[in-house]
Amino acid sequence: KSANPQWREQFDFHYFSDRKDMLDIEVWRKDNKKHEELLGTCHVDITALPAKQTNCLELPLEKHPGSLLMLIAVAPCTGVSISDLCVCPLGDPNERQQISQRYCIRNSFRDIKDIGFLQVKVLKAVDLMAADFSGKSDPFCVLELGNDMLQTHTVYKNLNPEWNKVFTFPIKDIHDVLEVTVFDEDGDKPPDFLGKVAIPLLSV
C-alpha cells in the first residue's frame, strides 16, 4: 500500500571482472498471491562504476513512471574463486604455508570475522537420472554456502558428467551447511532437479 516503498535490503553478488555483465533490476507489484504486475525495469553497467567506493544511483524506471534509489559498491571479492583442478589454489606449498600461519593459534584474534575458508573439489557425478527424451541429461552442479552460490559448467548429453572444478568459499558461520545440488539444463525453461546433498561444516 505504498507508492514510495523503502526496503533497505542488502544483496551480495560475486562479479568477476573478465565478464561484461549488466545488473538487471525489476520492480513488481502484488495484488494478491496470484496476481503480479511489472512496474518497471532498469539496468546498471557494472564496468562503468568506480571501484572501491559506494556509488549512490537514482535509476529511472524504463517505460514506467518512478525511479529506484540504490547504493552499489564494487569491491574486491576475497576468498571466493573458481578454478580448474590442475591450478588448485592450495596446490602451491608456499600458499599452504601462508594459510597455515594465517590461521594458527597465535593469530586467532587478529581478525575475529575471518573464520577460515572451505575448498571444494567437484570431480564428477555417476548414474544420474535421465531428464531428456533421449535418455540423457545436461547436468550442472550448484554449490551454496550461506549467501554464496557458485556453479559448474554444463556437461551436455551425459549421465556421468566430469566437471573437475575447484570452488573456494570464505566461511562466515561455522554452523553453515554446504548444499550441493545437481540440475538438468533445460533451455529457456527452469532447470530440472536431479539430486542434492547437504554437508554441515561441523562434520568436515
Characterise the protein shown here.
It is a single chain. The chain is mainly beta. It has two domains: about 20-75, no CATH class; about 80-204, Immunoglobulin-like, CATH 2.60.40.150. The chain is about 5% helix and about 45% strand. It contains one helix and eleven strands; from the N terminus they run E-E-E-E-E-H-E-E-E-E-E-E. The protein has one helix at about 95-100, and strands at about 20-30, 35-45, 55-60, 65-75, 80-85, 115-125, 140-145, 150, 160-170, 175-185, 190-200. It has a four-stranded antiparallel beta sheet, with no helix packed on it. A three-stranded antiparallel beta sheet has the order 5-9-6, with no helix packed on it. Strand 3 (about 55-60) and strand 4 form a beta hairpin. The protein is globular. It is a multi-pass membrane protein. GO terms for molecular function: calcium ion binding. Keywords: Calcium, Membrane, Metal-binding, Repeat, Transmembrane, Transmembrane helix.
Poorly predicted ranges: none
What is the CATH T-level topology of the largest domain?
A: Immunoglobulin-like
CATH homologous superfamily annotation of the largest domain:
C2 domain
Q: Globular, elongated, flat, extended or rod-shaped: what is the shape?
A: globular
As a percent range, the share of strand residues is 35-45%
Per DSSP E runs of 2 or more residues, the count of β-strands stands at: 11
Q: For the terminal residues, how far apart are their CA atoms?
A: 47 Å
Question: Class by helix and strand content?
Answer: mainly beta
Helical amount = under 10%
* Rg: 21 Å
Q: CATH class of the largest domain, please?
A: Mainly Beta
Within the largest sheet, what's the order of strands?
8-7-10-11
Helix and strand string, N-terminal first? EEEEEHEEEEEE
Number of helices: 1
Domain C2: 1-59, 93-204
Protein name: MCTP2 protein
Pfam families: C2
GO molecular function: calcium ion binding
